[in-house]
Structure formats: structure tokens, C-alpha cells
Design a protein that fits this description.
71% of the residues lie in helices and 0% in strands. It has 101 residues and is mostly helical.
Length: 101
């Protein structure tokens, strides 16, 4: 591989604006900024601990994946709505118990 190779990437407009803002503030080229960002990211990834799941955990993960394939799951929005509803219900019970005391 040559000393340098060109790579084309696509970024969302908001990220491009951020890159431009930082690069101008730091008086860098886009390439310098992206190289540095990748250097930092890759160094961080190398230092992350590697976890190997146990056989039991792998079985449970597979059970979860099978349930998802069957459509047995909640979306994050559904989960938060249910959580919010149970919080409201707990607050109502708490208010009632204080009112009768």
C-alpha cells in the first residue's frame, strides 16, 4: 500500500458543519482533523476490555434473538411509555396514601 491512499466518506450535513467549525478553529485541513479523530478513536478501541460471554449468556442471547425474530419484543418508545405510565400510577398511589394519612 502506498504511503497515503485516498478514502471517500459520506457524512450527514450536521456532522460536516461540526467538522468545518472545528477545523477552522484549529487551523487544520479536513484530512488532518479526520486522521486525528480516527487515531484517537482507534487508540481508545484498542484499550477497551474484551469480554467473552459465558455459554449460558450465549444461550440467553440466542433465546432473545429468536424471540425478536418471532416479533416478541418492545420498541424503546413502547418501553419508555410503559415506564412513564407505571411512574404516573405510582405517584397517584403515593398521593392517595398521603391524603388518607
Amino acid at each position: 500500500m502506498p504511503a497515503r491512499a485516498t478514502m471517500t466518506i459520506s457524512l450527514p450535513p450536521a456532522m460536516i458543519r461540526e467538522v468545518e467549525k472545528v477545523r477552522k478553529a484549529e487551523h487544520r485541513t479536513r484530512s488532518e482533523l479526520i486522521r486525528e479523530a480516527l487515531r484517537v478513536y482507534l487508540n481508545r478501541v484498542r484499550t477497551l476490555p474484551v469480554y467473552t460471554p459465558t455459554t449460558r449468556e450465549l444461550r440467553e442471547i440466542e433465546k432473545g434473538r429468536a424471540a425478536m425474530r418471532r416479533g416478541e419484543y418492545y420498541t424503546l418508545d413502547e418501553f419508555f411509555r410503559a415506564l412513564d405510565g407505571s411512574r404516573r400510577q405510582a405517584r397517584r398511589k403515593d398521593r392517595r396514601s398521603r391524603a388518607s394519612a
